[in-house]
């Protein structure tokens, strides 16, 4: 039900671009987006998902201001000359821009119009069959001499109709190569390696993606090696794999040592954070209720009750004085976990085994926690 169409029209005498859609509740197409030539944008019943596609729901609502800067990329239909007549009446010379642009989509009409009004010289670039340069704002911020250099270089390396992007042209000028070759480099590597490195790796048949990750690791762990050709200029794929394997082994050793040091520091910080409450422990209603003092105990509690105590780093929350966590056990068997938050020591979470459908702790644990709260927490709060 989310099939969209678009059109160029006139609303209250002002040229406008509209997108129409329909919903399960309203099967006749209605306007879900409207953009005036003046720049004002409004919409209704139009939603963009996290996957960047658009949907419509419900019956037609009142229009409200469209918050995004760009026109929605929903429909890609080419604007016909007769649809543009209201605009041509206001700007007669704009019809020449329409004639010279091949992919003149309806959705881009006002964007192109505003760009042309600011940079009428874009028509010269269209005469040279350079549509992407003609619509590039960065290009028009450059000095005239630099613009001439770019156009001359592009025409020398271009085809009959040249769609090179400005970054590809500038990169090609820097390395004296064809813009299409630089574009391939830019898209394949995201410029994580230099263009000369890219050429060398291609010649030696080294995997570009793996080398990019490898170089990022060098930058993070061994930045001095980036200046050493031994590490950055493999002769072939096999020599690269040997060096990558060695680097990964060294990184693993570094990270293991760091993890040990971080765990030790965290354990010390935790003990210091619970210094005033580490004695809060006792048998209540036949159950042991206490503030844990051992990091390993946290891991055992999380594993036994399938809780995210370690994964979501509740230990750090205790260290940061944001909360206090209490364990409840029957002998050595974990029963439930409680979290108290803030200076008021408000109980915000109290769960049993989270793998089960009913994660509510048993009544005996609730009674025990209430007795523990009476003895320690309510007095403190």
Keywords for this structure?
381 residues, alpha+beta, five-stranded antiparallel beta sheet, flat
Give the SSE layout.
Blueprint: E1 5-11, E2 14-21, E3 30-36, E4 41-43, E5 46-48, E6 54-56, E7 64-65, H1 85-90, H2 94-100, H3 109-118, H4 122-127, H5 131-134, H6 137-141, H7 144-157, H8 166-175, H9 179-189, H10 195-203, H11 208-221, H12 229-232, H13 237-273, E8 281-284, E9 287-290, H14 295-305, H15 314-319, E10 323-330, E11 333-341, E12 346-351, H16 363-380
Antiparallel strand pairs: 1-2, 2-3, 3-4, 4-7, 5-6, 8-9, 9-10, 10-11, 11-12
Helix pairs in contact: 8-9, 11-13
Structure commentary:
By secondary structure, the protein is α+β, with helices and mostly antiparallel strands. Helices cover 45% and strands 17% of the residues. It has helices spanning 85-90, 94-100, 109-118, 122-127, 131-134, 137-141, 144-157, 166-175, 179-189, 195-203, 208-221, 229-232, 237-273, 295-305, 314-319, 363-380; strands at residues 5-11, 14-21, 30-36, 41-43, 46-48, 54-56, 64-65, 281-284, 287-290, 323-330, 333-341, 346-351. The strands form 3 sheets. A 5-stranded antiparallel β-sheet has the order 1-2-3-4-7, with no helix packed on it. Strands 8-9-10-11-12 form a 5-stranded antiparallel β-sheet. Strands 5-6 form a two-stranded antiparallel ribbon. Strand 3 and strand 4 (41-43) form a beta hairpin. The longest helix is centred in the last third of the chain and has 37 residues, at 237-273.
């Amino acid at each position: 039900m989310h099939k969209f169409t678009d059109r160029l029209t006139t609303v209250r005498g002002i040229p406008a671009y509209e997108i129409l859609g329909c919903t399960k509740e309203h099967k006749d197409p209605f306007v879900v987006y409207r953009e005036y030539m003046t720049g004002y944008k409004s919409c209704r019943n139009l939603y963009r998902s996290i996957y960047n596609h658009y949907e419509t729901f419900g019956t037609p609502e009142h229009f409200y201001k469209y918050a995004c800067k760009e026109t929605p990329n929903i429909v890609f239909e080419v604007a016909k000359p007769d649809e543009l007549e209201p605009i041509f009446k206001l700007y007669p010379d704009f019809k020449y821009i329409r004639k010279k642009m091949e992919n003149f989509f309806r959705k881009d009409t006002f964007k192109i119009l505003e760009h042309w009004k600011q940079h009428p010289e874009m028509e010269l670039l269209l005469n040279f069959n350079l549509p992407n340069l003609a619509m590039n704002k960065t290009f028009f911020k450059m000095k005239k001499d630099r613009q001439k250099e770019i156009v001359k270089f592009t025409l020398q390396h271009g085809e009959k109709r040249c769609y090179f992007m400005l970054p590809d042209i500038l990169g090609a000028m820097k390395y004296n190569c064809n813009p299409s070759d630089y574009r391939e480099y830019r898209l394949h590597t995201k410029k994580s390696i230099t263009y000369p490195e890219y050429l060398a790796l291609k010649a030696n048949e080294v995997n570009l993606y793996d080398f990019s990750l490898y170089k990022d690791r060098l930058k993070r762990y061994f930045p001095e090696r980036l200046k050493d050709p031994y590490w950055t200029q493999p002769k072939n794929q096999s020599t690269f794999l040997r060096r990558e394997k060695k680097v990964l082994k060294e990184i693993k050793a570094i990270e293991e040592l760091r993890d040990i040091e971080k765990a030790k520091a965290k354990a010390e910080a935790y003990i210091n954070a619970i210094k005033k409450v580490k004695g809060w422990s006792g048998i209540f209603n036949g159950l042991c209720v206490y503030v844990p003092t051992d990091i390993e105990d946290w891991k055992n509690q999380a594993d036994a009750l399938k809780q995210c105590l370690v994964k979501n780093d509740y230990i750090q929350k205790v260290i940061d004085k944001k909360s206090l966590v209490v364990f409840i056990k029957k002998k050595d068997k974990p029963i439930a976990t409680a979290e108290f938050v803030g200076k008021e020591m408000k109980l915000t979470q109290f769960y049993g085994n989270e793998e089960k459908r009913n994660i509510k702790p048993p009544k005996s644990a609730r009674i025990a926690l209430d007795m523990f709260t009476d003895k320690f927490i309510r007095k403190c709060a």
